């Protein structure tokens, strides 16, 4: 449907009235531990909130939560995705503190308030009796963080791939339009050898020495600045004691790029280094821990332009950017997709995380308008 000026103004004003509801719901969601791979309790809670609204949610084997809101006509659907999981272990204190216009708490912005906004979007559409051309599919998904490998988004998009017209991901910061998907390959590189006594077996190849040589080789690679391509050795492990020649050592490697070809070229170079590094008495192996596909939607893409114009309607100049989000999956499939946020956050992925409350009404108005007009867009 085409929104009138009166409807648009009503959406803006009513979204402000939902601000406290989003805050309260976000705090409730945040209080339930949901480390990647163990999102079940949070999924059940979110499903119960959908039931309170008169909907019948479905929870799949991964713990994705689905609710479908019917549109006027059959045809392409618009999926709204907000991830449930956090980077924090289950034992982390998840207390959220409100200080004026600030909410402090681990996971409050990434991504509890986004999930709360998903629910508020449904509420506003129902309250204002706003129809969409096609169905809207609301999905609170799992496995977005860390080594979750976007498994929740992948499962949801694969399931509805044939009928998907567009995907709106709610994550990140208000004012940004994520239209480029930063792909990644995450490997564990392991070096093994016979080991031995540091003095008595001196000269025996050490797994740690071999790993160190391998890492130096990676850091010597020439990496393109455009498209931006990166690598990082984030964890190294190995050895037994100071006077033992290491029999095993490993490193966790993260490689990223917005361009699939550049990412693969980097992976091929690293693989060659790993093979070369094996000396007499040492063996190397690569274990794939995760892969996130890369890709992009052009700025001229109608959905990207819609997201940008919606921000301008709200008085913000859009900032186009790249990131690794649930949007990677539909973008890689060639399905129109963007990722947008509902407020500004700081210190994400730390226990000192905090967000600003006052922009939430604006962020919610953005999502409501996007959901309605994206549905009309994919019908054309």
Automatic annotation (TrEMBL):
Cofactor names: Zn(2+)
Listed Gene3D superfamilies: 3.30.70.360, Zn peptidases (3.40.630.10)
Pfam families noted in UniProt: M20_dimer (PF07687), Peptidase_M20 (PF01546)
Alphabetically ordered keywords of this record: Hydrolase, Metal-binding, Zinc
Keyword Magnesium among UniProt keywords: no
Alphabetized GO MF terms: hydrolase activity; metal ion binding
The keyword Membrane belongs to this UniProt entry's keyword annotation: no
Residues making up the signal peptide according to the UniProt record: none
Domain annotation Peptidase M20 dimerisation: ranges: 182-280
PANTHER family in alphabetical order: ACETYLORNITHINE DEACETYLASE, PEPTIDASE M20
Protein known as: Acetylornithine deacetylase/succinyl-diaminopimelate desuccinylase-like protein
Organism, scientific name: Thermosporothrix hazakensis
């Amino acid at each position: 449907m085409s929104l009138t000026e009166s409807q648009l103004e009503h959406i803006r004003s009513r979204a402000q009235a939902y601000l406290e509801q989003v805050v309260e719901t976000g705090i409730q969601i945040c209080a339930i531990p949901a480390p990647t791979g163990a999102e079940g309790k949070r999924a059940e809670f979110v499903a119960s909130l959908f039931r309170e609204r008169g909907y019948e949610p479905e929870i799949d084997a991964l713990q994705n939560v689905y609710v479908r809101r019917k549109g006027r006509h059959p045809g392409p659907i618009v999926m709204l995705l907000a991830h449930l999981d956090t980077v924090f272990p289950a034992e982390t204190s998840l207390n959220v503190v409100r200080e004026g216009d600030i909410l402090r708490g681990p996971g409050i912005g990434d991504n509890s308030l986004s999930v709360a906004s998903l629910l508020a979007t449904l509420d506003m559409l129902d309250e204002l009796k706003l129809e969409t051309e096609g169905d809207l599919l609301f999905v609170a998904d799992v496995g977005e963080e860390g080594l979750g490998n976007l498994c929740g988004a992948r499962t949801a998009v694969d399931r509805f791939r044939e009928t998907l017209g567009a995907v709106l991901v709610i994550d990140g910061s208000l004012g940004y339009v994520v239209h480029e998907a930063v792909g990644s390959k995450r490997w564990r590189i392991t070096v093994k050898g016979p080991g031995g006594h540091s003095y008595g077996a001196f000269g025996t190849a050490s797994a740690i020495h071999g790993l160190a040589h391998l890492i130096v080789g990676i850091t010597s690679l020439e990496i393109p600045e455009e498209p931006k391509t990166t690598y990082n050795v984030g964890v190294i492990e190995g050895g037994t004691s100071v006077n033992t020649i290491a029999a095993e050592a490993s490193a966790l490697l993260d490689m990223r790029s917005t361009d699939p070809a550049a990412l693969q070229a980097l992976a091929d170079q690293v693989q060659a280094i790993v093979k070369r590094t094996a000396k007499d008495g040492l063996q190397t192996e690569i274990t794939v821990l995760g892969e996130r596909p890369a890709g992009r939607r052009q700025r001229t893409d109608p959905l990207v332009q819609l997201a940008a114009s919606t921000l301008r309607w709200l008085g913000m100049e859009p900032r186009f950017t790249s990131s690794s989000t649930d949007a990677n999956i539909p973008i890689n499939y060639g399905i129109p997709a963007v990722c947008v946020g509902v407020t500004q956050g700081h210190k994400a992925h730390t226990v000192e995380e905090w967000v600003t409350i006052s922009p939430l009404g604006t962020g919610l108005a953005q999502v409501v308008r996007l959901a309605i007009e994206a549905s009309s867009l994919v019908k054309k």
